[in-house]
Design a protein that fits this description.
The chain has two domains: 48 residues, Helicase, Ruva Protein, domain 3, CATH 1.10.8; 140 residues, 3-Layer(aba) Sandwich (Dna Topoisomerase Vi A Subunit, Chain: A, domain 2), CATH 3.40.1360.10. It is built from eight helices and seven strands; from the N terminus they run αααββαβαβαβαβαβ. Strand 1 and strand 2 form a beta hairpin. It starts with a helix and ends with a strand.
Length: 194
């Protein structure tokens, strides 16, 4: 019989940033929590495995298709903000500065990690450019993000669409996901032609 405490520690240790000590602390916290706590957490996690898939339009991870953002008629159709990760959308929404659509690449070009353009959701982006007048490249301000923006710029500019890149309001190396709302809003306002 596997020991439930040991196997719970084992599983939690698999999470990023969680070591043996933290995993053990979390398990004993759950053992002392109100009855049903571990069950509620387990149920929420199972929902991730069964109910979430990429939106057929913007590739954001969602439980509905199209996602709530693509389905919202109040969002501008003519502007698409291209981000690396679904979490980046949350950062933009927190800034309250953006009313257009999004497109999630699910990564950035990183030759050293074997990630080329074909591994990203670029084909899906090209397929939805009808009626789009501006594409804002909001990949992270690091080597991979810049390389991806450059690649996309070369691909999109000949198609007659305005291509802009976020200004350097957010410091180099900061991931969009962790950028504060004010800096992100400023970077968006001061975006420049690529
Ligand atoms: Zn969507």
């Amino acid at each position: 019989m596997p020991d439930p405490i040991a196997s719970a520690v084992q599983q939690l240790k698999r999470l990023p940033g969680i070591g043996e000590k933290t995993a053990t602390r979390l398990v004993y916290w759950m053992l002392n929590a109100q009855p049903g706590t571990a069950h509620a957490i387990a149920e929420a996690l199972l929902g991730l495995e069964d109910g979430i898939h990429p939106c057929s339009q913007c590739c954001n991870l969602t439980s509905s298709d199209p996602c709530a953002l693509c389905a919202d008629p109040r969002r501008q159709h003519d502007t698409v903000c291209v981000v690396e990760h679904p979490q980046d959308i949350l950062a933009f929404e927190r800034s309250g500065e953006y009313r257009g659509r999004y497109h999630v690449l699910h990564g950035a070009i990183a030759p050293l990690d074997g990630i080329g353009p074909d591994q990203l959701r670029i084909r899906e982006l090209l397929a939805r450019l009808g009626g789009v007048s501006e594409v804002i490249l909001a990949t992270d301000p690091d080597v991979e993000g810049d390389a991806t923006a450059l690649y996309l710029g070369r691909l999109l500019q000949p198609l007659g669409v305005r291509v802009t890149r976020l200004a350097h309001g957010i410091s180099v190396g900061t991931e969009i996901e962790y950028a504060d709302a004010v800096s992100l809003a400023r970077a968006l306002q001061n975006r420049r032609e690529l």
